[in-house]
Amino acid sequence: MSAALQVTAFGLALLSTLFLLLATCTDCWMVNADDSLEVSHKCRGLWRECVTNMQDGVRTCDQYDSILADHSVKIVVTRTLMITADLLAGLALATLVLGLDCITFLKEDPCAKLKMCYGAGVILGAGSILGLIGSVWYAVDVYVERAMLVSHNIFLGVHYDFGWSCWLGMAGSTGCLVASVLLTCCLY
């Protein structure tokens, strides 16, 4: 039972970590959601803003200024939290691989392997909480920005909704949290 639970948690953690990495690297955290006929589709991300022409499919991206340049708090905090979550999830995966029962590392000391799995769960939990905070922070900021424009009757011709990268970050963080719970609470 313990080995099956470890492998299940590892599979979920691996998939969730890939989701976190994709969310961090991709550029569609918020998308324009105008109901009129659009000639272009705009995505904003943590690293660049891309516009896709709907008629011919040509995509152009504008890189943000240097990473050290002044950016909005939303982008800086989300970048920091997502990169930290990625690093912690990667460290947890490496620790979990070494702690799996099916791996011959420390085969003569099952107690140490169990502690490694537990430690991987704790690290994964910390990373998942940081990823959730980063994803939700960005989503709430997008919502507040849109609500402020609506409350002041300001219409700029386009408004933004959450993009697939934001949802991917939330899904990856939630999956890491579930894997962490499996490793820390259910393994014993």
Automatic annotation (TrEMBL):
Q: What is this protein called?
A: Claudin
Per UniProt, the keywords (alphabetical) are: Cell junction, Cell membrane, Membrane, Signal, Tight junction, Transmembrane, Transmembrane helix
| Span of the signal peptide | 1-28
Q: Does the keyword Signal apply?
A: yes
The scientific name of the source species is Thryothorus ludovicianus (Carolina wren)
Entry keyword Transmembrane helix: yes
* Gene Ontology molecular functions: structural molecule activity
Q: Which family does it belong to?
A: Belongs to the claudin family.
| Location(s) in or outside the cell | Cell junction, Tight junction; Cell membrane
GO cellular component, alphabetical, reads: bicellular tight junction; plasma membrane
Which residue ranges does UniProt annotate as crossing the membrane? 118-140, 162-187
- Function according to Swiss-Prot or TrEMBL: Claudins function as major constituents of the tight junction complexes that regulate the permeability of epithelia.
Membrane topology per the entry is: Multi-pass membrane protein
The coding gene here is: Cldn16_0
Top-rank taxon = Eukaryota
Principal subcellular localisation of the protein: other
